Amino acid sequence: MLNEFKEFIARGNVMDLAVGVIIGAAFSKIVDSVVNDLVMPVVGAITGGGFDFSNYFLPLSASVTAPTLAAAREQGAVFAYGNFITVLINFLILAWIIFLLIKLVNRARASVERDKAPDPAAPPPQDILLLSEIRDLLRQRA
Could you list the residue ranges that cross the membrane (predicted)? Predict the structure, then answer.
């Protein structure tokens, strides 16, 4: 069983997945910082306060009179649609930023591939060379 576990871990795709998860977690922090520290302040300055709908809710009982979502949840049932709207807008901004980053990386990768010199053509195998010589000799005799 231990040997099977070693074989499972040693497979390339398992290691690639582990590296992908670790890089993804680190990249997530970078993207969160871009959204929260760079994009959202600009959006907030343009819209006069940003996209924070987190306290928008509809009370589902008459006993709910609180002005904030946290206090309203303590009083009774609420339909808290505002937080969903905020998360949806943040997701769209995040998806757009990731799209732009991937587009930039793909453009840079294509530029590097274009700048690479093509590999010289491999010489034909020995048997093909020998057959070509035989063909040429037969043409000369005819």
Answer: 12-31, 78-102
